[in-house]
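Lecture 7 notes. Example A: sequence first, then its structure tokens.
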Amino acid sequence: AVSSAPPLMMFSAGKKPTGEIKDTVKNVINSKQCVIHIASEQDADLVTATAATLDHGESEVNANDIELVEFEGCDLPRIKNCHIAYGCELYEVQQMGEAPQSLVFVKVKTLYVNDEVISLDAKQRLKIHADKVAPLARLGGGEYSGITAPFAMARPK
């Protein structure tokens, strides 16, 4: 998250080897919307497979037999087997760096969280259980990490 008011998220994408903007960024610019998923450790092979360079117009979803479902409150579908998905609209795109990266800022409009990974806390607020989500983090190149032992700390008053 970049901001809570408005609720903004950001992702970055480099250029294709040809220097062109990647299709993901083009698609967000053209449609003015996207869905951001939180991948789980169990999906590491699929995440890596979808990073393959495809010809323009070829779909990672089709190439990897990823099942999509309707996403309530969003014009785009979400990945069926993903625990968390954010339905977003384009906020701003910036180019940064000497080898320009596209920084894509999006405003969160709707959220899907699988019931299996949430519960109510003592104050009746939704709590997402990181150990059940098992979020996958890409460190760079082919290196990934997961959360081995989530922990909580009391916040100062």
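Example B, a different protein, same format:
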Amino acid sequence: MKIYVRSEESVTVIDKSKKDWEMNGRKGTAYKAICHMKKGDEVSVDEVRITEEVYRTMKPMTRYFLAGDLDVKNGRFEVDEAVEDKSTK
């Protein structure tokens, strides 16, 4: 089952990565964004899977609101929409 989720607070995208992979005769490309979020004294840095379209439009060191599908069975979240947070400029 997949659930569509959206972030309530914006996160800073530190950088993004693109990596080719091959496993059991299958090939593909994995796109990821390294995100930073600070809430009070708590800081977290996480890698998030993103789509190729989001990869092309995303700029490092920019704040975004993220939205995408959470695959409940596999525990994976893939961002298919990133909206720049204009209020922090």
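Note on Example B: The beta strands are 2-6, 11-23, 26-39, 42-50, 62-71, 76-84. The chain has one domain: 2-88.
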